[in-house]
Design a protein that fits this description.
Blueprint (H helix, E strand, L loop, with lengths): L1 H15 L4 H9 L5 H8 L6 E3 L22 E8 L2 E8 L10 H17 L3 E5 L10 H17 L5 E5 L2 E3 L4 H5 L2 E5 L4 E3 L3 H8 L5 H5 L1 H7 L5 E3 L2 H12 L40 H8 L5 E4 L7 E8 L2 E8 L10 H16 L4 E7 L6 H5 L2 H14 L4 E10 H6 L9 E4 L4 E3 L3 H8 L1 H6 L3 H16 L3 H5 L5 E2 L5 H11 L18
The structure holds hexanoyl-coenzyme A.
């Protein structure tokens, strides 16, 4: 027996080496951690239990029979993050550049299948040269097996992708289907075709980083959600984000202990919103006043900054915040803001995370660029997402709620549960200037002093419409609240809504405008 145990220990030691010491050194020399080091940083200390560490590929072509490594380029298993079980895979670049083989894909599918049965999140750490070229269609099939599982798991268990190296070609579509993509500066990149193919086809000169680096995908394309300075901070931010999530779509995120004595008025909020409705202010300051310990985990903070989305705890409860940002483009809704927020709303709804909407929106962005690129279709995504969401929805109109954007931003009409407005809120079809120029066009044209007439009509319009009370008279606003009362009222509302049950009609699935 002792011999057998020694043999086991040797096999274990070999599996831990991955592609060998030289390859580990190369990985470190590139400033990258190994697949196992990354898992150790991400999960609770000592909680990782690996499976399938003895799996090897079965390919004999291209001399691969002489090159075989236990584990075959991906480490898989179970672990805990913040005390909660997760399934994890981490591609091992030291073995054939982390490329995806048939057996390696089978390992990933195996833990994804288990995660679905167990109702636990899957975290995938990507660092791979793509399909293992020597295996041809077998590796392509492996990708398809993963894509199918990503799709079936979508909305059932949270799926998080962490890109810490190359992720190229069709391989990008697995992370793309998952809920959140984390990338690290300078050493991760995602693209469908690399710089050399781009050069051949479009004659553009572009570097790896410019084409598909972390900055690109968190500022330009919106493909990725969170950027980290280095691998350690990136992995730690995955842990942080997961503290706001439930384990699956039947679960709810755990409440934190909350000291109710912290629920006092917040006087700062009474003076934070400028009287002049054309003056910008930073909605993040409002968020910081409302969330517990000023802790807000922002998603896509450098993309479509005219809308803010992210997770926080409010009164100890995990919530998804969607907020217009008057400090950027006056908080207008455009294509990117709509798709960014729509995807976030749908994630929260799928995973029972209540939505808190902070609204200050002048409407949708006008212009040919927006119209020709489909603001109608993309804006409809956000409308659709809020309409179909059945989680608790609390909306606070801090200032402007104009036009279609009033309807879209979780209004009462589309099943907002508690809709509050500040006393300075302006709820109308459009802003005073535009409205007066249309409805009083003839009167203004006929007036001796056109400017005076415009001012008079604008004042009348503001007096009549630029307030929250007409909406409140109709019950479209549940209450007009002092800004300083916001946190109290939101926490009360979220507590009342804890037993909320709402349903959508039975259907195979809706047809969101894509
Ligand atoms: C087999 C691969 C590999 C692959 C890398 N390696 N990619 N082996 N299949 N796809 C091996 C290399 O041969 C090398 O082995 C080791 O991994 C490290 O690779 P290097 O090139 O030395 O590393 P580096 O210089 O860091 O470059 C990394 C890289 C490059 C940019 C990823 O390796 C590369 O361009 N690889 C090919 C990428 C690619 O075209 N993949 C197919 C995409 S199409 P040795 O033994 O020399 O150390 C695709 C289709 C998926 O994935 C479709 C799904 C629908």
């Amino acid at each position: 027996m002792l011999d057998k145990i020694t043999q086991l220990e040797e096999k274990r030691a070999l599996a831990l080496l991955g592609g060998g010491e030289d390859k580990v050194k190369q990985q470190h020399d590139k400033g990258k951690l190994t697949a196992r080091e990354r898992i150790d940083l991400l999960v609770d200390e000592g909680s990782f239990r690996e499976i399938d560490s003895y799996v090897r590929h079965r390919v004999k072509d291209f001399g691969l029979d002489k090159q075989s490594f236990p584990g075959d380029g991906v480490i898989t298993g179970f672990a805990r993050i913040n005390g909660k079980e997760i399934a994890i895979f981490s591609q091992d670049f030291t073995v054939f550049g982390g490329s995806l083989s048939e057996t390696n894909a089978n390992k990933i599918c195996k833990i994804m299948d288990a995660a679905m049965k167990l109702g636990i999140p899957v975290v995938g750490i990507n660092d791979s040269g793509g399909a293992r070229i020597q295996e041809g269609v077998l590796s392509l099939g492996g990708y398809a097996d993963i894509f199918l599982r990503n799709t079936l798991a979508s909305g059932v268990i949270p799926q998080i992708s962490v890109i810490l190296g190359p992720c190229a070609g069709g391989a990008v579509y697995s992370p793309a289907i998952t809920d959140f993509i984390f990338m690290v500066k300078n050493s991760s990149y995602m693209f469908v075709t690399g710089p050399s193919v781009v050069k051949t086809v479009t004659h553009e000169d572009v570097t790896f980083e410019e084409l598909g680096g972390a900055e690109t995908h968190t500022t330009k394309s919106g493909v990725a959600h969170v950027i980290g300075e280095n691998e350690i901070s990136t992995l730690l931010s995955v842990r942080k984000m997961m503290s706001f999530l439930p384990q699956n779509n039947r679960d709810t995120a755990e409440d934190n202990d909350f000291d109710a004595s912290k629920l006092t008025l917040i006087p700062k909020l009474d003076s934070l919103i400028p009287d002049n409705s054309n003056k910008p202010y930073d909605m993040k300051e409002v968020i910081s006043c409302i969330v517990d310990d000023s802790q807000f985990f922002e998603i896509q903070n450098n993309y479509a900054e005219n809308i803010i989305v992210g997770f926080a705890r409010v009164g100890g409860m995990s919530v998804g915040i969607v907020a217009n940002q008057p400090a950027v483009l006056a908080g207008v809704l455009d294509i990117n803001a709509s798709t960014k927020a729509a995807r976030f709303v749908r994630f929260c709804d799928a995973f029972n995370i209540p939505l808190l909407v902070l609204e200050d929106v002048p409407g949708f962005l006008p212009g040919t660029e927006q119209e020709w690129n489909g603001i109608i279709r993309h804006g409809a995504k956000l409308l659709y997402a809020f309409c179909e969401a059945t989680v608790p929805k609390v909306t606070v109109i801090t200032r402007k709620a104009y036009g279609g954007a009033y309807d879209v931003m979780s209004s009462k009409h589309i099943r907002g549960d508690f809709n509050f407005a500040f006393p300075g809120a302006e709820i109308a079809v459009m802003g005073p200037k535009g409205a007066v120029e249309i409805i009083f066009k003839k009167e203004i044209a006929a007036a001796a002093d056109r400017e005076a007439e415009t001012t008079k009509k604008t004042d009348e319009y503001i007096e009549k419409f630029a307030n929250p009370y007409i909406a409140a008279e109709h019950g479209f606003i549940d209450d007009v609240i002092k800004p300083s009362e916001t946190k109290m009222r939101v926490v009360e509302a979220l507590n009342i809504l804890k037993t909320k049950v709402d349903k959508n009609p039975r259907k195979k699935h809706g047809n969101i405008p894509l």
